[in-house]
Amino acid sequence: MKKLKVLALALLCAAFSPAKADEGMWLLQMMQEQNLADRMKAQGLKIDIASIYNPEQLTLKDAVGIFGGGCTGEIISPNGLILTNHHCGYGAIQQHSSVEHDYLTDGFWAKSYQEEIPTPGLTFRFVERIVDVTEKVNEDVKKGKVTEAETFGSKYLKELAEKELKKSDLKKAPGITAQALPFYEGNRFYLFYIKTYKDVRMVAAPPSSIGKFGGETDNWMWPRHTCDFSIFRIYADKDGNPAEYSKDNVPLKSKKYLTISLKGLQEGDYAMIMGFPGSTSRYLTESEVRLRMEATNVPRIEVREARQNVLRKEMAASDKVRIQYASKFAGSSNYWKNSIGMNKAIVDNKVLETKAEQESRFAQYAKEKGNADYEKVVGQIDEYVKRVMPIQTRNTYFSETFRSGIEFSAPQAAFDELKTALQKENKKDIAKALETLKKEFANIHNKDYDHEVDRKVAKVLIPLYASKVSAEALPDFYQTVQKQFNGDYNAYVDALYDNSIFASEKNFDAFMANPTVEAIDKDLAVQYTVARNAKYKELADQLSNARGDINLLHKTYVRGLCEMYAPTPKAPDANFTLRLTYGNVKSYDPKDGIHYKYYTTLKGVMEKEDPNNPEFVVPAKLKELYASKNFGRYALPNGEMPACFLTTNDITGGNSGSPVMNGNGELIGTAFDGNWESLSGDINFDNDLQRCIAVDIRYVLFIVEKLGGCKNLIDEMNIVE
């Protein structure tokens, strides 16, 4: 019991240094416990903290949710209208695009419910309830139902969530699931009840020349002029419950939605963001930061750059390929550039030195306290890093090459099923297996896959992987390259992409007409896939074994750091759960002699225009609106059109699409990026450099109304002047 009391105190701590109030991705359910209200009001919050989160009533929390698989969205009308980023909706926009209907290039504007497009697979999830289950987990450990190490595992956490859901009054509620997760490196556990809506329809999206203005060049950069937004809508059954798509579904009657402010913003104004930050690692040791740099970022940069060079060339040569690979390229490029920027910022911002200084302080604290676990934990983590560095490096090369890079393969499980059926001469099972293969063939040769483009990617990545890892990390098909193709990678890839069963419809049909075990065993794609999967499992097992008790070491280290820095509050690392961050609108000075003001305007779009660079093309209609100054009520007092702005909010991936709210809880913008100089922020927050880049809500509404002609959408929002 004494340890639990110490831990409860420790969780009101700062892990690194006395934190300024704008650092931290705060848990809503801990705001009262951590006494954040006074800090937030000192920054400029005007509403009661209970109107942000209160489990007993509707609050701002109920207007924010998870858009798709990894972004945030907010409800901005009583009819289920979702605002998120253009890059978050990009996959859906691309899904609906074709050469004939190129919504990526031209944009999409629904003028009525009937014009809104269903988007299969797209979901929107709300956090219905949050419950502290720390005592339940500790009790399970105490009773021997689970080991302390097992409490980090997905198996235990899934079983815990299912058990609690069965006991809950929400167990029969439509669309409800439960998820249990560790916080503070396993020192605390929370259960989230999630309501998922599965009928989400595309409503509006600007042309990519607006929604992705600046492209790769401006990504992670300031000044920024990207109107990074898209709009969707939730549909539900007639009772407002989550339901699969049906023409009978109706727009959701939102129980909570955000008021939109056109009042504008000034430097120093309060700004808060609510959303789902994906992952931060601010409790890493110095050696673990080096591990991130060398074993994750460097391999990712090298492999993605090689693949993107191929895709960039092929996309420029064909509109069909451009549309097919638009979303894939954007996703790959985003964290390719992030990894480059992170490694640079770690050095520039002296993150390694900061970590070393912290460890020195911690060693002194542990010695004074006489805690043997604390005294040895950093050394134990360093030993862990030595073990896993070479394994994690080659695993990253493998994953980036064969799991994220090359798409073509053969469905191993489906072919195994067919082989078994053929060997047993079971006609029923043979027919079933062949039907499965038909579906798998369609899955691989989908509308967003180009066999010839992927062939070119494979010709680059397969030899690149071999040049980066030791021989024992090579899948067995590399022996085929040497023995059957005399080490000629191009010849091997051509044979793989020309002759395999899944290489073409002609080959597939011929096999389906006469399926044999011999044909399966001789197939290069089957051999490639079997070898790839076997090596992946081998490397993953090696990494898992090398990790040892690292989770428990982190748990000890975080607890010790918290005790050392108590009682200043500190948020746990991000893990894609609902968080709030507060700060201010603020400019910054990245280098000597350089000052960046806190906002940009449409004038900057025109100044950046380059009709010969697809990243900086400006649509003719936008130029017309700019020339006529037809900005309506969305202009600044001086007549200019605001574009983007900066805040000191603490965000990371997953926050994309998050609402930026003023001191009254009104929507003033949508977060979409961080700045280049602070890309080490996931590891070490820098109050002087860390900035969130947001698109001004006035720019969004201007584009919706004046360029998109969707006054219908403006009219359903609650806008205050």
Automatic annotation (TrEMBL):
Residues 1-21 form the signal peptide. One of its GO terms (biological process) is peptide catabolic process. It is an enzyme of class 3 (hydrolase). Coiled coil: none annotated. GO terms for molecular function: dipeptidyl-peptidase activity; serine-type aminopeptidase activity. The keyword Lyase does not apply. InterPro entries: Pep_S46, Peptidase_S1_PA, Peptidase_S1_PA_chymotrypsin. Gene3D superfamilies: Trypsin-like serine proteases. Pfam families: Peptidase_S46. Keywords: Aminopeptidase, Hydrolase, Protease, Serine protease, Signal. Its EC number is 3.4.14.-. Catalyzes the removal of dipeptides from the N-terminus of oligopeptides. Belongs to the peptidase S46 family. This is Dipeptidyl-peptidase. It comes from Phocaeicola coprophilus DSM 18228 = JCM 13818.
